[in-house]
């Protein structure tokens, strides 16, 4: 065994537990989003004046506020747990919609080229001229507040990244031997796309989807922070953070705990996305 291999093996062993940390944290978030609201009851519109602005660990009329209470007496831990479900539901819905639309348009543009490619490419250029969050703010501001409105607002421009990625890969795949063989054998164009082109996009699309999930969660929190996203009866980390702005000097926990939950989630999802992107980029090269 070479000296390099001897030195590298322990290093790789030490890095494996650290590499699993983002996956473990995301798993905890998913468990909290799935089962937390079933365990922790919370009414987002109920208030308790006697329990307002209690620090973490204080006793309340209904138990112990482990993370304290906010300005109207609502439990901060319950807001964090219920906010996790809201973030995942909206984030996953946005990614599914944008990925479906983006893959379809990008694959068609890359496979056919010529006029379809020209039209779709110009549409992509137009959408890229508008910042995604600005477009979402305009749409959310024009419509009534609600989860569906937030999903639509974030999906309007979110498909562009998937379309650009799918178009580039489809252009490189359409001249491959197996695609030529399918065309020679008389396989229909839709079947060629779905069986021999789109599956080749899977790895790169999954990598991009993780990054887009983090962006969608962050954008939803931004809309709610600006009071443009979700109504008061739907819990959101952005609303919780905004609700604690005026109490930062006296009740820091109202903003810090939801903000920390949002930050940790976005960082972990981003790390996983970067890792998957590097892996599938190497495979494609």
TrEMBL record:
Compartments where located: Cell membrane
TM region(s), chain numbering: 20-40, 88-111, 123-142, 148-166, 205-230, 250-273
InterPro entries from the UniProt entry: BP-dependent_transpt_permease (IPR050366), MetI-like (IPR000515), MetI-like_sf (IPR035906)
Protein name, please?
Peptide ABC transporter permease
**Pfam families on file:** BPD_transp_1
Q: Which Gene3D superfamilies match?
A: MetI-like (1.10.3720.10)
Q: Which PROSITE patterns match?
A: ABC_TM1 (PS50928)
For this protein, the record's CDD domains field holds: TM_PBP2 (cd06261)
Write down the species: Actinophytocola xinjiangensis
Q: Name one GO biological process term.
A: transmembrane transport
Provide GO CC annotations from the record: plasma membrane
Which residue range or ranges hold the ABC transmembrane type-1 domain?
Answer: 84-273
Sorted alphabetically, which SUPFAM superfamilies does this protein's record hold?
Answer: MetI-like (SSF161098)
First and last residue of the signal peptide: none
Give the main localization category: membrane
Membrane disposition: Multi-pass membrane protein
Q: Member of which family?
A: Belongs to the binding-protein-dependent transport system permease family.
């Amino acid at each position: 065994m070479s000296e390099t291999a001897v030195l590298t093996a322990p290093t790789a062993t030490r890095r494996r537990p650290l590499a699993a940390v983002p996956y473990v944290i995301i798993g905890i978030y998913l468990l909290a989003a799935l089962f937390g609201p079933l365990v922790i009851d919370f009414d987002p519109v109920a208030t308790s004046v006697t329990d307002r602005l209690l620090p973490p660990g204080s006793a309340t009329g209904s138990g112990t506020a482990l993370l304290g209470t906010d300005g109207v007496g609502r439990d901060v831990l319950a807001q964090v747990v219920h906010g996790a479900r809201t973030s995942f539901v909206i984030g996953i819905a946005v990614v599914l919609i944008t990925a479906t639309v983006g893959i379809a348009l990008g694959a068609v543009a890359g496979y056919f080229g010529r006029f379809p490619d020209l039209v779709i490419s110009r549409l992509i250029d137009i959408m890229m001229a508008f910042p995604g969050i600005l477009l979402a703010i305009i749409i959310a501001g024009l419509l009534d507040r609600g989860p569906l409105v937030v999903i639509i607002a974030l999906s309007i421009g979110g498909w562009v990244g998937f379309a650009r990625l799918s178009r580039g890969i489809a252009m490189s795949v359409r001249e491959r031997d197996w695609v030529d063989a399918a065309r020679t054998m008389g396989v229909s164009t839709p079947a060629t796309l779905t069986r021999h082109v789109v599956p080749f996009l899977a790895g790169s699309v999954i990598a991009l989807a993780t990054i887009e999930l983090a962006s969608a969660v962050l954008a939803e929190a931004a809309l709610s922070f600006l009071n443009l996203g979700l109504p008061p009866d739907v819990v959101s980390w952005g609303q919780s953070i905004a609700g604690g702005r005026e109490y930062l000097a006296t009740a820091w926990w109202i903003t810090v705990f939801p903000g920390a939950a949002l930050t940790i989630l976005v960082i972990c999802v981003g790390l996983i996305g970067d890792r998957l992107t590097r892996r599938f980029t190497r495979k494609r090269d």
